[in-house]
Amino acid sequence: MSPTSLPAARPALTTTAWRRVVALAAAERERWSLWTPVGLGSGIGLYFALPVEPPGWLGAVWLGLALLAGVWLRHRQGVLVAALALALIGAGLAVAQGRTAWVAAPILQEDFGPGLVAGQLLALEPGEDGEAAGGRVVLGQPRLAGLAAEVTPDKLRIRLTLRDPMAARVGDWIELPAVLRPPPEPAAPGAFDFARQAYFQRLGAVGYAVGHARPSDPPIEAAADAALDASGWQALEAWRLWWSGLRQHVTERVLRALPGRAGAVAAALMTGERAAIPEDVIEAMRDSGLAHLLAISGLHLGLVAGLLFFAVRAALALVPRLALDYPIKKWAAVVAGCGAFAYLMLVGATLPAQRAFVMVALVLLAVLTDRTAISLRLVAWAAAGILLLAPESLLGASFQMSFAAVTALIAAYEVIGRGQPRAFVAQRGPAARGLFYLAGVAATSVIAGTATTPFAIYHFNRMAWYGVAANMVAVPLTAFWIMPWALVAFCLMPFGLERLALLPMGWGIEAVLVTAERVASWPGAVAAVPAMPTAGLALVVLGGLWLCLWWRPWRLAGLLGVAAGLASILVAQPPDLLVSGDGKLLAVRAPDGRLWLSTMRSARFTADVWLRRAGEASGEAWPRAGAAAGGALACDPLGCLFHLKGQRVALVRDGRALDEDCRIASLMVSLEPVRKGRCPAPLLVIDRFDLWREGGHALWLAPGTGADAVRVESVAAARGDRPWARPRGGGRED
Fold first, then answer.
1. pLDDT exceeds cutoff 60 at 731
2. For FRET with 4, which of 19, 168, 543, 597 sits at 20 to 30 Å CA-CA?
């Protein structure tokens, strides 16, 4: 072969490989629709990843151009598929933009109070033992003493933590002295953004009460609006308030009939109110891999609908005339759907519950239309529906973990079902069937746990190693004992007899809690894991989808994406310095990798976030004077010097140390303002002005000196200029 023939061989090889890929994709054409939510999610993810708010027309124009291209080139299959994929991305972008504009509400710009806050009680979460003290309330149509009404319009909501018990009911107008703050920004670049979540909940301020609440009269304009508009928006608000009041009433009755931790968990399962659960119980459930039982999700909605379906169908089957002449299966599906909807509203219709209800509703619709009840196509349409209604749910751990578990389970059982194990076991005795059930529970726990582990690492930086063992006990107890008694309690509640069902329900809950505590106490039950990069999670998601959504052996290529995403944890470099936005906390990473914190007494929440993202259970405190961190940190009452990678970093607590530190440091982090020109020009200075303007900072050091040897990221830069990012004023004084 002559050398001149080699360049021509490579394009031929590439063309052959491309044709092979096209042929494989064409062979799985019936599964193309499963990628619909992936396209929508890509557009939504693109929107939230942008550093600035895009023009309002961008998504719609993108979608329109992609559809026009698809229609114009519809005879070329490859181009048509690409155009449809781009159209889905454009649709996701447009939906996210529309949702952001729809929920827009003002955000409190500055701290308020202590001052008088008045508003309508929209929700009340009791504290431990059913008391309002230590619980939380949500106020609507707030009025803040000293602020004009137009600054706090009706659609703004405020969430307050209570200090004293309160006897008010949902729907009442109250006033109380409180301290309010804007929703907090992330504790570090890349950390969870509560302010973004609050924006889509129309939550414009958070805070705490500093005194007793007392009844208040509604503002004149609220009464006028209610008189003029008894339908539409007011009717919707009245509907929500009615369900909130019912939720409060049911919660109080459950806690009264079943006091203690079992009652708190029962209330969480029946109404979604988790505030009364003791912290040690939540910790044990989390460490044992059972935290999913406390969050209303597909398991709970599915059990409610399933129990109602089988109970109604069994009752109707007792009447031969009905069983033989009428579609009692479909009647039972309708009753189950209505019951699931009532349960959805009772638990507050949170996004996870809405997602679960959509899934359940589609299953019941499949029963009504004589279709396959559970399939990947059903999951795809449910995911697409949720993303269209609430695109921000894509960023939530609940959405990601729920759909990851369901998709992996259905895909796995598609493969397992080829061998028809049920038909084989049906020919065996009760013992074999029992073992088959236990094997199914174990397999389900392993599959679901494996699918959700990357998301648990990304969001919570922890892994529960013994979750399979705990779930093999807790899930059957929940399915066959706890939730059935919960339904009986609902039925008995109108007659005041709910205690008859809540007592046996409490026995099952105690068994679950004992299991959680035992498993959580095992050595090495929980592993702390450093933060996974967002790009790593994206690789895991794409690899997992490739593995689950295709059918033929080429699906196994998705394992490479999963492995690469998990490996990103190992190659990700954590920051060497961290500074909180309020200047109350600093941290340095010692040469051995441990975090040393400037204080262990203040900024506890920020410290917990930093330690969790570092994969550490606890940190070390800086000395007031002397050396620490293996000699890398030397402190005196005015500040500290940190030596790492040949750099000398001055950490200034007192302005009196500035002059000396300006001469000897290669980098300065000052909690005091540093006027321009006070330090030599090459010295990189991050001071109180920078923290005020840009929020918390993370710094990575490299060998050398000067700004080129330091990589700096701030919370403001990571969040970008977005509607949920509160504009920060102030600048460096000259």
1. no
2. 19
